[in-house]
Amino acid sequence: MTTIEQWINGASYAGEPADRMPVENPATGENIAELLIASDADLDHAVEVARKAQKAWAKTSMAKRTAIMYKMRELVLEHQDEIAKAIVAEHGKDYSDAIGEIQRGRETLDFACGVNAQLKGEYSFDVSTGVDIHTIRQPVGVVAGICPFNFPAMVPMWMHPIALISGNAFILKPATPAPSASLIIARLYQEAGLPDGLFNVVAGEKDLVTSILTHPGIDAISFVGSTPVARIIQKTATEHGKRVQALGGANNHAIVMPDADLEFAGKHISSAAFGAAGERCMALPIVVAVGGIADELVKNVISHANDIKVGPGLEEGVQMGPVISADAKKRIVGLVDDAEAGGAKVVLDGRNLVIEGHENGHFIGPTIVRNVDMDSALYREEIFGPVLVIVEADTYEEAIEIVNAQPFGNGSAIFTNDGGVARRFQMEVEAGMVGINVPIPTPVAYYSFGGWKDSLLGDHHIHGPEGLRFYTRAKAITSRWPTESGAYEATMSFKRED
Ligand code: NAD
Questions:
Q1: Rounded CA gap, 218 and 240, in Å?
Q2: Of 18, 152, 318, 374, which residue has the fewest beta carbons closer than 10 angstroms?
Q3: What angle do CA 103, 317, 276 make, to 5 degrees?
Q4: Sign of the Cα pseudo-torsion (281, 169, 192, 121, in order)
Q5: What CA–CA distance (Å, rounded) separates 230 from 224?
Q6: Among residues 379, 381, 364, 294, which one has the least CA distance to residue 327?
């Protein structure tokens, strides 16, 4: 069985592991690798080399840094099949979805390649007699990224290209169920010419994260994961004097208005609810059907959901893989069971799906539930599985109240053909990312990504311009060059003698 080590100072690093954990293939239920869990000594080593490398990197020209990013972009393209297969094996998502996440992640590399234009400062001449002021942005130092399991390549790529191009060193803590994509990325950075020590990978869970959050050699933390953990991250990291951005969980709602194209809405809701087995922070688990259209909408969603081929991610034609673990499956099925026991109606039931030849895989088929009690855990909690809940409202006003009453505010969408309602929705909805006839409104990488309310702790969204601000500090320089000192004459005489 393969052993997965840390990556420190430009090489695979066994170090002094604190523990070992199995890495499972969720489509088969079999353990496929053993992951070494980094000890505090391993983390200290990573921080030490990162701090040293960062000092030189901060003085490396933008031209050189940019050339490395261009090379990295090429290498990620060249190796996307290898990265995608590692994701499928450990996460379970289907191959085309894995390629999709690499492409979305690579957009941040594209952004990083052109970032110099955005790192320009400001200059004001003669703000006082003979006095000028200008601003620059400098790197924060050593940055750590703590990542969730559901996008093993894309979420870290929201962070490291921007952290690195702006002069920081980066320590990545991937999620333990799917660590291999991060190690491929580490190898590719080295191939791209990134100096050793600037990109390190350390694997672990709560204990290692606590050591990262309290480590005096780490200056900033980017976190993406669930809200309860985001709260711990933000509190502990800020108490230890670190800059922190913590993106949390979600419970995204879409409103479907009676004037919407219900065939279009049905197709897109099916893919937003069930794609990646619902394991996306921008997945769509709740639809609010307005004005008596629920029956027709559900019929349309079911007809598309029935076409989804569920199975192991590398099999031809598969569009949806298993969920991440047996525990996740138990939790998701349990949420649906409990709602049903409370009177909900399961109108499409994927709970008992078994895939031939993969009987131990953690598969759940697309599931749709109606008549759900809005106090039930199925409605209130983040499901993070292929389950769609349909609730109903009589009017737009009632629907937007339902959407805004929930504590999360990651993404939200409306399906309508009425520009006035769409315009009103974009102003009134309490969410960081809004879709109009777009159910998963994930911004491209040159915009920033982030939610409101319980979906984001800290004040910076991730990647794009806000990512760049997060990984840099502003400096304002006020300068004066008095000639009275005789400095000018001294220079002239030096030149003459020379
Ligand atoms: P998670 O919160 O369980 O884990 C995220 C990271 O935190 C992992 O690296 C994990 O090792 C670490 N961690 C877990 N428990 C910890 C603890 N008690 N103390 C310190 N560290 C801990 O999330 P997950 O299950 O890996 O990923 C799914 C979650 O991530 C969902 O809630 C999803 O919505 C969210 N997510 C959010 C976004 C976003 O952009 N807002 C994007 C992707 C995923």
A1: 10
A2: 374
A3: 50
A4: positive
A5: 7
A6: 364
CA of 230 to the centre of ligand 1 (A): 7
Residue 217 has pLDDT above 80, yes or no: yes
Confidence (pLDDT) at 444: 96
Q: So which residues are the catalytic ones?
A: 281
CA of 245 to the centre of ligand 1 (A): 13
What does the pLDDT read at residue 384?
98
Ligand 1 within 6 A of 146 CB? yes
Q: Is the CB–ligand 1 distance for residue 408 below 6 Å?
A: no
293 lines ligand 1 (CB under 6 A): no
The rounded distance, in Å, linking the Cα atoms of 310 and 366 is: 9
166's CB contacts (< 8 A; 6+ apart) are 115, 119, 137, 139, 468, 471, 472
Backbone angles phi, psi at 179, to 5 degrees: -90, -15
Task: Map residue 260 onto helix, strand or coil.
Answer: coil
Which whole number is the average pLDDT over 326-354?
Answer: 98
Pocket of ligand 1 contains residue 136 by CB under 6 Å: no
Q: Are the beta carbons of 463 and 449 closer than 8 angstroms?
A: yes
CA atoms within 13 A on the CB side of 208: 30
pTM over 0.85: yes
Structure confidence at residue 482 (pLDDT): 84
Q: Is 213 a pocket residue for ligand 1 (Cβ < 6 Å)?
A: no
Distance 148 CA to ligand 1 centre (A): 4
Taking only the tens place, the pLDDT of each residue in 131-175 is 999 999 999 999 999 999 999 999 999 999 999 999 999 999 999
Q: Which two tokens stand for residue 219?
A: 């200056």
Q: In whole angstroms, what is the distance from residue 159 CA to residue 136 CA? A: 21
Q: Tell me, what's the pLDDT at 493?
A: 56
Contact predicate 26/92, CB 8 Å: yes
**Tens digit of pLDDT for each residue in 83-120?**
999 999 999 999 999 999 999 999 999 999 999 888 89
Average pLDDT over residues 381-386: 98
Q: CB atoms < 10 A from the CB of 246, how many?
A: 25
> Cα 96 to the chain's mean position, in Å?
18
pLDDT at position 225 = 98
Query: Does the structure show a pLDDT above 60 at 498?
Result: no
Q: What is the DSSP letter of 194?
A: P
As given in the structure block, the two tokens for residue 324 are 């991440």
